Amino acid sequence: MPANDDLQKAQRFREAALPYLDDVYTLARYLLRDASDAEDAVQECYLRALKHFDSYRGPAMKPWLFAILRNVCNAEYARRAHRPSAIEDTPGAADRTPIWQESEASPETEVLRSRDAGAIRKLIDALAEPFKETFVLREINNLSYREIADAVGAPVGTVMSRLARARAMLRAAWTAEEEQAK
Amino acid sequence: MTCNEARILLHALLDNELDAGHAREVEAHIAGCPDCAAEFAAQREMQRVLADTDLRYTAPASLRTRIEASLPKPQPQPTRRSVLRGFAMGSAVSALAATGVVALVLRQDDQQRILSEVVSAHLRSLQAGHLIDVVSTDQHTVKPWFNGKLDVAPPVIDLTAQGFTLVGGRLDYVDARAIGAVVYKRRQHVVNLFVSQTSNAEYRAPKTETMQGFNCRRWGNRGLNFWAVSDIGADELAEFVDKFEAAMKANVEG
Questions:
Q1: Domain RNA polymerase sigma-70 region, which positions (chain A) (predicted)?
Q2: Numbers of helices and strands, H then E, in chain A
Q3: Stretch B84-95: mean pLDDT, rounded?
Q4: Is the ipTM of this complex over 0.85?
Q5: For chain B, where do the domains classified as CATH 3.30.200.100 start and end?
Q6: Is A157 exposed, middle or buried (0-12, 13-18, 19+ CB in 10 A)?
Q7: Which residue range(s) make up the domain with A134?
Q8: Please, are residues A31 and A73 in contact by the beta-carbon 8 Å criterion?
Q9: How many domains in chain A?
Q10: Range list of β-strands (E), A30-74
Q11: Are residues A158 and A86 in the same domain?
């Protein structure tokens, strides 16, 4: 049986960190664009977080978890870079589904609006880093500029200009797609 | 201010990240520059559409299980259910002890039930047209509105300066009783603060529970029970409660 301290620590960790599982998983999905890679990254993130939980003194729990997840994802990027064939140009291929299928329409997403959400997710997926990450942290994970700065280790001013750039790129892609649809 | 500066700062304005002085400067620039005004309007529209679309992902249950399994675990304790199963199987517990245990089990279930009712009330409030009975950002309008509708006067405190905007009040029903709900907004997120009377005037420290993905922080003070429910993070909800209590304290003493 584990020592009592370990149990209490695990319980505190559970209460502090597990409520953010969906947030962390969401960021992982956008960063890695692959469901099973995202699951592995999130699990690794929580293992590392538990290991360092004793020395955790802030920032807020959410940016802290995101900072750990980013490190895990960067390792994953490095691993991918060594793969023989890059899959950068076809994001859907990462899900091992043919690109002519609606790959995002899994049962876990809501039926209503799922089509719109799927289209918007693709536009966001196509944003370049570090703009995508900043955009997702602000618009989907709802972090303040200060919290984003903590999570990505950049000054607030950099966060602000990356966000402006991300939104400009997203809007350009969005309008281009609407033009095409006409 | 140049257009280049405004093109970056207008995003901080959209996100409520500017102090009053800078906000005025950006607003002044936008008012005098049609190009930047158009960009601002377009970005605001895009933000609105994004906020209306669910772009989050939900972690698969298997992932949660895997993470749970990797945490140190206590030896299995008899759960409430297995205690009850023990009774069903006719275990040799005396009738007196049995009543005591059942009462304990029921009281815990009672709290769970009220928590689930509070979360349901929060969910109902998010449905269209259901959020607010009295729409006002003015505490002196919202507070008198509750008069005569409840057996308590829920404290209505404007926390706009602290980052939680008062948007109104509502009557709701929890545990088969009318209960006051004071509604706040944090960015696009709704915080419902439910208030009911209790005979217990003791202070009970805030405690956060999570149900169906919502955080609920409940505490008791000055003969009132409070439940703050929202989908904002547990740390932000705790911040809300701290600020609310600080403002209450200032009101009572001041």
A1: 20-81
A2: 8, 0
A3: 47
A4: no
A5: 94-253
A6: exposed
A7: 109-182
A8: yes
A9: 2
A10: none
A11: no
Collapsing DSSP states into helix, strand and coil, what is residue A1? coil
**pLDDT tens-place string over residues A128-178:** 989 999 999 999 998 999 899 989 999 988 999 999 999 999 998 888 877
Residues of B at the A interface, defined by Cβ within 8 angstroms: 7-12, 15, 17, 42-43, 46-47, 49-50, 53-60, 62-64, 66-68, 70-75, 187-189, 208, 210, 213, 215, 232-235
Find all residues with CB under 8 Å of B142, minimum gap 6, and list them: B134, B136, B156, B166, B168, B169, B182
Whether A7 is covered by a domain: the verdict is yes
Task: Please tell me the distance in Å from B96's CA to the nearest CA on chain A.
Answer: 33
Q: pLDDT tens digits, residue range B11-63?
A: 999 998 888 888 899 999 999 999 999 999 999 989 988 888 889 999 999 99
**Domain check: are A117 and A62 in the same one?**
no
Interface probe for A, chosen from B43, B44, B45, B55 (most Cβ of A below 10 Å), is: B55
* Residue-averaged pLDDT of chain A: 78
Record the pTM.
0.54
Sheet bearing B214-221, strands edge to edge: B134-135, B165-174, B177-186, B189-197, B224-230, B214-221, B204-211
Q: Residue B186's beta-bridge partner residues?
A: B189
Which residues in chain B are contacts of A24 at CB distance < 8 A?
59
Of chain A residues 6-65, which have a CB less than 8 A from chain B? 6-7, 9-10, 13-16, 18-26, 29, 38-39, 42-43, 46-47, 50, 60-62
- Mean pLDDT of chain B, nearest integer: 81
Summarised one tens digit per residue, pLDDT across range B209-219 is 888 788 999 99
Chain A residue with minimum CA distance to B16? A144
Q: Which of residues 65-84 of A touch B (CB under 8 A)?
A: none
